[in-house]
Amino acid sequence: MSKARSADLSDIEIVGESAWQENLARVAGGRTREGVDLPVRAEFAPEAGDRPSADAVAVFVDGLQVGLLLGESAKAYRAALGAQNSSCAARIIGGWERGEFDSGYFGIRVVDE
């Protein structure tokens, strides 16, 4: 798997994390009172046109899908790397649990290496 640093992917936006909260929680070690800010390696795998967006790129951490690149982010990825898989530094954030009405979703963001 090539490193994404061969292309500038710092502006890409990972979306769809709400669909993969279980996977994000598993990678992050579960919810905590303060939430997490966990450095991880995000792996990108362009998908074959089986989604409404033919440009979609799946995002994985530790072999678990945690999000997608869609729209402009997917187009930027494919313009830089085509159908090639790659990886880059990222952070899983959020995931706090402070009571019945105070909890936050996990998210994942690309960071500079």
Task: Summarize the structure in words.
This protein has one domain (2-110). The chain is 17% helix and 34% strand. It is built from two helices and six strands. The protein has helices spanning 21-28, 71-81; strands at residues 2-3, 36-46, 57-61, 64-69, 86-94, 106-110. Strands 1, 2, 3, 4, 5 and 6 form a six-stranded mixed β-sheet that branches. It starts with a strand and ends with a strand. Mean pLDDT is 87; it is low at 1-6.
Summary tags:
single chain, 113 residues, alpha+beta, six-stranded mixed beta sheet, disordered N terminus
Quick recap of the structure?
This protein is α+β, with helices and mostly antiparallel strands and 113 residues long. It is 17% helix and 34% strand.
Task: Please write out the topology.
Blueprint: E1 2-3, H1 21-28, E2 36-46, E3 57-61, E4 64-69, H2 71-81, E5 86-94, E6 106-110
Parallel strand pairs: 1-5
Antiparallel strand pairs: 2-3, 2-5, 3-4, 5-6
In total, how many beta strands? Answer: 6
What series of H and E elements makes up the topology? Answer: EHEEEHEE
Question: Which class best fits the helix and strand makeup?
Answer: alpha+beta
Oligomeric nature of the chains: single chain
Query: Ends: how far apart?
Result: 16 Å
Structurally, how many domains make up the residues? 1
Mean pLDDT reading:
87
Largest sheet: 6 strands, mixed
Rg estimate, integer Å:
14 Å
